[in-house]
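Please go through the sequence line and token line underneath and see whether the fold suits the sequence. See right below:
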Amino acid sequence: MNTNEQVASISSAQRDILALRDTLNSQVIGQHELVDRLLIALLTGGHLLVEGAPGLAKTRAINVLADAIEGDFQRIQFTPDLLPADITGTEIYRPHDGAFQFQRGPLFSNLILADEVNRAPAKVQSALLEAMAELQITVGQKTYDLPEVFMVMATQNPIEQEGTYPLPEAQLDRFLMHVKVDYPHPSTERDILRLVRSEAVNAAQSRAISLSLVNLKQARTEVLGVFMADPVEDYIVRLIVSTRNPAALDDNLARWIDYGGSPRATISLDACARAHAWLAKRNYVSPADVQAVAHDVLRHRLLLSYQAEADGISVDQVVDKLISLVPAP
């Protein structure tokens, strides 16, 4: 198939998503991997945990995404004094009829930015966890459904850890991917300067909505329909199972891994690989798609031992070793 035929064969939903990716890359310069991971989470109905130093366009990325799609967006700044009702909503007493009316909180939106999520106490994190896992929130004796299109992008600052509440492993597992954002290349930083100056001059310009929720739902259906051959599916299972029984692969892996990935890791790797292939305009998943998203899917799901820390081994190095040892089809 030549390029023209390939372009002609993509659906309107796929065309809109690819146009959205171009928009994001033009507005969030030098963070192509973050942009792709945002779109993968959007396409699979998952949630992102993004870690990086201040000023690396984490907040800007989801702001631009929110501007470019149809739907509601809320930013929640997580602080130590935040209460669950501040994000879920609360019952408001109406004195004129003596009844209580539920006032919805910011979680009742399509896109949520949970800024510095590890600064909030356990009860707030628990309320967020229910929303992410069940697409619902509970207030008192009542349960309220959240929008069908619902995505949380939570950020963590790798510095200034004093006064933070580390996310429990059960909550970390609810995130589809854990993305690490690094500093842009020096040549890219010049483009960032020019973009900021240009936006300051054209501050009144607004971005038009380019992706409807209808097309987003269609795109999600198409991602689920991407073909995965049995050997590739078996490759995904072997990768995850090997994290639970690393001694069968390598003695070093056995010393470094305390706990491996859960079945949710298998499901997430499958979904992300399909979305990665779909964004590449392919209707099938290759082992390269699995390997491309493996680090982000496993980074927060593998618990390393003290021996790994003593050896100076990171989670990413463990995943590299895993990929090198598990034969691809």
